[in-house]
Amino acid sequence: IMERKQAKVFIMAPVVRDKKGMHEKLLEDLRREGYARIRINGNDHELDEDILLEKNKRVDIDVVIDRIVVKDETRSRLYDSLETAARLAKGLVKVEIDGEEHLFSEHFSCPECGFTISSLEPRLFSFNAPYGACDECLGLGFKRKIDPKRMIPNPEKSILGGALDKYANYESIYLQQVIQACKAYGIDVEKPFKDLSESEQDVIFYGTVDPVEFRIKTRTGSMQHRFIKPFEGVINSLERRYLETTSRMIRDWIETMMNDIPCEKCRGTKLNEQALSVKVGGINIHELTSLSVVKLNIFLDNLKLTDKEYEIARTILKEIKDRLGFLINVGLDYLTLGRSSATLSGGEAQRIRLATQIGSQLTGVLYVLDEPSIGLHQRDNHRLINALKDMRDIGNTMIVVEHDMEIIRSSDFVVDMGPGAGEHGGEVIYAGSPEKISECETSITGKYLSGKLAIKIPSKRRAHERGYLRIKGATQNNLKAIDVDFPIGCFSVVTGVSGSGKSSLVNEVLYKNMVNLITRRSETAGSCSGIEGFDQFDKIINIDQSAIGRTPRSNPATYTGVFDDIRDLFSSTKEARIRGYNKGRFSFNVKGGRCEHCMGDGVIKIEMHFMPDIYVECEECHGKRYNQETLEIKYKGKTIADILDMYVEDAVEFFRNIPKIHNRLKTINDVGLGYIKLGQSSTTLSGGEAQRVKLASELYRRITDKSLYILDEPTTGLHSHDIVNLLDVLQKIVDKGATVIVIEHNLDVIKVADHVIDLGPEGGDSGGEVLIVGTPEAVSECKASYTGQYLRPVFRNIDSDLLEE
């Protein structure tokens, strides 16, 4: 205002804004307080006039506080008038400058619509705090709703033909209500569900407003109940029952028909309208956290601030930039800040924790890292190595469990354990500098580091004789509408830097769509325009690294099915037959043979309330899981508990004369798991070990040329020597006619593949494109491919001894 010298200014307090009423009390109060003029709907009035307003007419009333000509000497008068107006109108001030009206507010609010936010505090921008969370989804960003596609997996069927079988069977009172409601509204229950109009489907899903007469028969048909009420609708009924039921079984059943749908109010942002209204550099906090680490870094570099704003934000910006730098240095520049922790791989989560520790700048700390290179492309390895060295250089000790040869070479000191695995290991084979480990004759690691041992490259690749499994227009996450061909009957590897779209392409688009096509389901799958060649398959197996079984009772023996055969064997022994023990007697999961004191667990859990629970060996069975009578039955001098405590490689020899058991155990041994125990709890197996148990289980099943196997980084946790066994198994699967598709960073796997699809060029938004498709040799010649750059030395320095015949 003070910049408009000699301007005529009216200072007003907008006390009524677009409200009905005569406002007699307000006008009387204003007169009593000494105000002289008001403006009603833009027209000036003296308060000593008789002012009559219509009761049902909306009006604006502004109290004229002062009229001023702007001069330097009127500055203090102007301040006083503005303060008076704000106090009278509860924070609002209307100013007219030379006929131009301006509305101001002293609150965080819009003076026009009245939208207000409270004071800006950090908790406002957290979806974990009620202060900032969306009040509709409570900060989750989604609501669990019934998905019509999951409830009606086959819309080709009619209602009478079983379209709603997942909801209720024909005799159910629920389905009787659906059929009678349809008849009341003239809906053909024998018509395919997909051919019903949208309004007809809405009646079925969401019910009716008008009452419907129902005559419900009991299952026997002996009784009939008559009642009149509006039809609730199938979806409304399920959602009500989901909220009201106390039965876990019913909730699990209803959840099979549900999907997480983005919250309509916050549109998946998790935050309320107040938090989203605050913007920095033109974007709100959700838009900012949706940027990748590298893009946010660029955004902050280009952020335009005034000198005053920069002084306020300088320290905060430095902290943010430092932390982004730490994430970039450990190879996580492609991640978005708002990414759910549940979607992070183990390696990504570990590197985030590493970045946090780098930022803390602690010294004198002993850090232990377990395979930090998991999921990391060779290009990003040097960043990780530099980050580890930086932490070492500020005075910390870094102990890293690792199989990656580049990281081993970069270390200061190597401790090599062995010589084998399981009971054949546990010894220190070598301790010293990485340069001298190759001189240790008993160190397998040293032999791979020196090149004395290496995984051989096939002298020829399989031809693409059976056509292709073709994905068209894949757009899931960062994929750029790509078309990808996987040769049928070949060993294909999908490569690319971290975050380039490999998992989106294989796990989300290929696997989930193939499952829907083969099984005729309608589960949520990655977006693409179509898949060709799916009819060449009747089985798809995704061998991931999730735990085997649902409880700690699960173990390799039960998961692979070999324990059933072992129990059959024990029940067929002479002593077992005399006592009448059947197969169930030798299960630790059911009453009869198990120890009832520990319920077959072998341990007793002691709850510590405010500390982690502890487990102690059962004093009755001494960890054997079985009661004494069951343990009296022996096969070749071994009890059933002895068998579960046996290493796989020992069990292979022990059951050599029982082909059914021997062959199953041999498949576990062949995937490099000879060192684990048959009864080892699933919770003690690593992700890589669990994946290989699943692979062994599949190997025993019938493999055909219509089988498709998918593996996501199967070399996780494997030494180079173990990778040899893994590759041998995968090649045998392909030799039987199956198709194998693997996501992998490991060059030893990539170089032996028949076909490579390399995605990139970068991670996140800068990825999602197909850089090159072809043999590993062709990829090694692609200059745009980071994978190619690291493959190039492998093929240029190839020795004839490293070629398979």
Report what the structure shows:
This protein is an alpha/beta fold and 805 residues long. Among the domains are: 98 residues, Ribosomal protein L1/L10, rRNA-binding domain (Ribulose 1,5 Bisphosphate Carboxylase/Oxygenase, 2-Layer Sandwich); 121 residues, Helicase, Ruva Protein, domain 3 (Orthogonal Bundle); 201 residues, P-loop containing nucleotide triphosphate hydrolases (Rossmann fold); 108 residues, ABC transporter ATPase like fold, CATH 1.20.1580.10. It contains 28 helices and 27 strands. The strands form 9 sheets. Strands 3-2-4-1-5-6 form a 6-stranded antiparallel beta sheet. Strands 20-23-24-18-25-26 form a 6-stranded mixed beta sheet, with helices on both faces. The protein has a 3-stranded antiparallel beta sheet with strand order 17-16-19, covered by helices on one side. A hairpin with an 8-residue loop joins β13 and β14. α10 packs antiparallel against α11 and α22 packs antiparallel against α23. The longest helix is centred in the middle third of the chain and has 23 residues. The model has no long low-confidence stretch (mean pLDDT 90).
Describe the secondary-structure layout.
Elements: E1 8-19, H1 24-32, E2 37-40, E3 43-46, E4 59-69, H2 75-88, E5 92-97, E6 100-105, E7 142-146, H3 148-151, H4 173-184, H5 198-206, E8 211-217, E9 224-230, H6 234-244, H7 248-255, E10 258-262, H8 273-276, H9 285-289, H10 293-301, H11 307-329, H12 346-360, E11 366-370, H13 378-393, E12 397-401, H14 405-410, E13 414-418, E14 427-432, H15 444-450, E15 457-458, E16 468-474, E17 482-487, E18 491-496, H16 502-519, E19 530-532, E20 539-543, H17 556-560, H18 562-571, H19 574-579, E21 603-606, E22 614-617, H20 628-631, H21 640-644, H22 648-654, H23 659-670, H24 687-700, E23 707-712, H25 720-735, E24 739-743, H26 747-750, E25 755-760, E26 769-774, H27 776-780, H28 786-796, E27 803-804
Parallel strand pairs: 11-12, 15-27, 18-24, 18-25, 20-23, 23-24
Antiparallel strand pairs: 1-4, 1-5, 2-3, 2-4, 5-6, 7-10, 8-9, 13-14, 16-17, 16-19, 21-22, 25-26
Helix pairs in contact: 6-7, 10-11, 11-12, 22-23, 23-24
